[in-house]
Amino acid sequence: MRPILALLLLLGLAGRAAAQTPGVPLDSLYSTNSTGFAAGFMRWPTDLFCGGRASAAAQSLEPRSLLDVVQRASRCGVRVVIVPPRRFLTTTGRVNGGFSLDNAKLLTDRYAEALPPDTLRKYRGAILGLNLGDDYGCTRCWGGNKITQAQIAEWARYARTRLPGVPLGVRVTPQWVADDSTLAPLLDYAWAQYHAGKGGPREYYDKAATVADRLGLRVVMGVNVKDCYGMRTSDCTVEDLDRLGRMAMSHPASCAFINWRYDAATWERPEIREAWDDLMAVARKRRAEDCRRPG
């Protein structure tokens, strides 16, 4: 009996150690090989997932490809933010159509079919979150109308029932969420993506953190490395990439570091790859965080 008792005690101690690991949800420990802080890009190619240069990606995913991408992410130690393709959310089925809440719910149903409960439990640690739309205030993007907080709130309520446990977020600063008191309790995270046209970077990230804390939200922080100095400008230099990237990634309120966006031609520049390698090395030294709502 003594060997059996010793084994049980050992397993019990190991279980308690895992449960007490700070900053890492229990399902993440068993559902993905990811280590360190979630850091990466929007549009990071899936065939680069296993290269080790990024530990997070935000991907536009159709329902038919969702499970394959999540499984690859789990194998490769990458955590994925699911981004609904815009054409699935419009009244016309085209990119620039008006937003349709009914179609958003229908897409959520199709995601749930691709990730039934047992599958979702198995791979939940590889899913960093689900973005509920994008560019909410861009009338040109949505058939002449803005997306309202009320629409996102109703979508979030529905998504909670169909994809339980998946963090839900918006790719916009927490202040947009704060403008409707009913929305924040339905979300897990907001977004703070900096370019120089938004003022001082430290002030920008600090404000996002302050508002998010008041709302009980986490924040994904990143840099618009494609338009570093304002919309339709130019890529970040290596120096700005290092300075801004470290600021966003090291911010205590940041739950992930995801940047707009991967560009193949820019990535081919050796000095850019080296800068990203340095940033990713820093990310591996910071403990993993969850983008779920605190508490």
Q: How would you portray this structure in words?
A:
The protein is an alpha/beta fold. It has a single domain (26-285), classed as Glycosidases (TIM Barrel). Helix content is 43%, strand content 13%. It contains 11 helices and 8 strands. Strands 5-4-3-2-1-8-7-6 form an 8-stranded parallel beta sheet. α8 (201-215) links the parallel β6 and β7. α3 (63-76) crosses α4 (101-114) and α9 packs parallel to α11. The longest helix has 18 residues, at 2-19. The radius of gyration is 19 Å and the shape is globular. It starts with a helix and ends in a 10-residue tail after the last helix.
Q: Can you count the beta strands?
A: 8
CATH architecture: Alpha-Beta Barrel
Give the N-terminus to C-terminus distance in angstroms.
41 Å
Main β-sheet, spatial strand arrangement: 5-4-3-2-1-8-7-6
Shape: globular
**Gyration radius over CA:** 19 Å
Helix content percent band = 40-55%
CATH topology: TIM Barrel
Strand content: 5-15%
Strand pairing plus helix content: what structural class?
alpha/beta
Report low-confidence residues grouped into runs of 5 or more: 1-33
Give the SSE string: HHEEHEHHEHEHEHEHEHH
- Kindly report the average pLDDT value: 90
Q: CATH homologous superfamily - what is it?
A: Glycosidases
CATH class membership: Alpha Beta
Biggest pleated sheet: 8 strands, parallel
Number of domains: 1
Contiguous helical run count: 11
